[in-house]
User: Fold these one by one.
Assistant:
Number 1:
Amino acid sequence: MSNSIFAQTNLKPLSLTTGVFLALALTACTSTETTMAVSAIDKHCVAHAQKMSEHAEYSQSPAQHLGAANAMQHCIANPLPANLSDKDSEQIMQVMAISVLSYLKAGDMNGAAAQFRRFDTQFPAQDLYLPDFTSFRDTATALLAGASLQPQILASLNISRNLRLEIERQQYWLTH
């Protein structure tokens, strides 16, 4: 033992000091946690997706509507943070609504239905109003259900007159 660099008496204080130092260093590392604010919506992504949607509207291309809808869907965090501000909630609802309508214009009923279910799950008691003061929620329901809507339910939906007449026309020709 005399060949050892550390004598037996010096080894214990050194290991005790090292152990205490490591314990303090490790607790200091784990106790200082920084929280980063998670953004619920990527505003640059939304601006790009809106330009895509405007171009799809101009060109009336189903493929471009589908691309715009997919782009908008990816601009929203999934899952959404728990505590959203009213402004963030409204922006997210608008992006989701535009995404649903873009899927419908592209002819992707499954994509529209999935995005509408997400809207319904995230914002169950909320709605948006279209420029003609009709309900987005009712309009999406009517467009997704189409001619399978019961006349009583169709009559209770806050949808445009033209949409109501078109659905009634479809129902008539499917039954006659």
Number 2:
Amino acid sequence: MNKQTVSTRWKPGQSGNPLGRPQGARSKFSEQACADALADWTANGKDTLQCVRATDPSTYLRVLFSIIPKDIAVSIENRTGPMDSVEMQMMRRLVAMIRATADAVDIETVFAWLEEDLRARVAKRVGEQR
């Protein structure tokens, strides 16, 4: 068929499937599916979660994170945790310094240097009181 035949088959406002899905049928299906899912969840949700967590942890986590509203996920990602703002600033500064060396030096070497230098600087000398 050519495009002209296809585009003029029905008059404007005329349905190509007059006996198709009745209006509201899709929303009724969705409402019923949600109601059925809620009933199943209410009856079996906790047991199902425990089973999936034990047998397939990756699916368990994927499902949990998929149902968390995005605004909550964002607030969790931006949360500073138990650290106060001064501690977070120190951590960010430390991470920035470590990243600055990443191209030149292996990260484990950087951590070894940090640990060695800090231990040397705060170590007590024999006979010294602190």
Number 3:
Amino acid sequence: MIQKIKKEKALIEIGFLIGVVTFLFTLLTTTLWQNDGISMGETIMLPLIGGFYLFLSIIIVNIVGINKVRKLAIKNNEQPIKKIYQVLIVLFISIFAYTLFDSIYFLFDNSLSKDYASSLEALLQSSGEKTDDIKDFEKLPFSVQNIFSSIFSAIVAGLITLPFIKADGEIFKSKNDNYYR
């Protein structure tokens, strides 16, 4: 079991990289929005922010990173695992890392979760809905509040990247690659 984890260490690192990038970009964007107060438009956009950055990070890093991992495995005369499993490992680790870093940040600063919950409460009250559960909702880290949009974005990004992950790890090939050999 440990050998398999060591073998897929690069995929775990890719997942953590995606999680860190997503967390930092989400933190930057939400902090900028919080400085002048979260508007109703921003309240509507907030659940999509983490998912959007996760989506972009997964597409860019997966295509480059997983192809590099596959190419390196072939170079070392190893059989890489199926690309669907590679993508799933990266997706799981990236969502886990993003949620972990956001939860740690939440322990020190929970203002985003509270501001987001207050904005949702105002939105619900303006439409006449009950807001009894908002107090419980604000006790959750921002990434947990929006976990479904993050998971959905990750799955869509993973599906988009699958065709770009090549069996031999070569992203760009030319018909003349063998010409110079």
